[in-house]
Amino acid sequence: MTTLIGLSGSLRAGSLNSALLRAAVELAPDGVVIEIASIRDVPLYDGDLEAAQGIPPSVRALKDRVAAADGLLIASPEYNQGIPGVLKNAIDWMSRPATDIARVFGGKPVALIGATPGRGATSLAQAAWLPVLRALGTRAWFGGQLGVAGAGPMVDASGRFTDEPTRARLAVFVAGFAQAARAR
Asked: Which of 49, 64, 146, 184 could disulfide-pair with 113, CB 3.0 to 4.6 Å?
């Protein structure tokens, strides 16, 4: 069994990226489980808080899940041509203390996907994540690229991605990433 942890970079209930991540869960091939983890309970990083109280329990739990997984699937929105602050904050917390980076991220296969109502298909956010992933020692997966532009009408009222061409692309993407994560 291959286990991937999925993180959405949006906290919004109607998030297109969370919908894309849920579709990835639905479309995962046999032998692959994608567990969606939440960043909602991760506080804003504060070095004083870390010094006084250590790593918050929500961050410890998230770090342990990522460390135990075969790979990390990030569904990242693109905000102002960059990465979302809430997701970067969660990644920053997970890199604390620095001595834990190798356990959580070292050599971890990571894939990036994203959806947007705009035309850019999150390509700038995906590119902006690469220096962060490199700094953490991850193994970014370049076997495919998946960004969905104009995604608003592709999600129904229940939050399900219904666009069949996008679902087909996502199924191929997830299968390829899972195979790469297994080969780690």
From this structure: 146
Longest dimension (CA), the chain: 50
| Amino acid in the structure at residue 57 | P
**Residues near 47 by beta carbon (within 8 Å), at least 6 away in sequence:** none
| 92: helix, strand or coil | helix
Q: How, if at all, do strands 139-140 and 109-115 pair?
A: parallel
Is 114 within 8 Å of 153 (Cβ atoms)? no
Per-residue confidence in pLDDT tens, the chain, 184 aa: 999 999 999 999 999 999 999 999 999 999 999 999 999 999 999 999 999 999 999 999 999 999 999 999 999 999 999 999 999 999 999 999 999 999 999 999 999 999 999 998 999 999 999 999 999 999 999 998 899 999 999 999 999 999 999 999 999 999 999 999 998 7
- Count of Cβ atoms closer than 10 Å to residue 183 Cβ: 9
Return the exposure string of 131-153: e unless at least 16 CB atoms fall within 10 Å of the residue's CB, then b: ebbeebebbebeebbbbbeebee
Q: Which CATH architecture has domain 2-182?
A: 3-Layer(aba) Sandwich (3.40)
Which element (helix H / strand E) includes 32? strand 32-37
Residue 107 CA to its chain's centroid (Å): 16
Phi-psi domain of 31 (left: phi exceeds 0; alpha: psi -120 through 50; beta: other): left
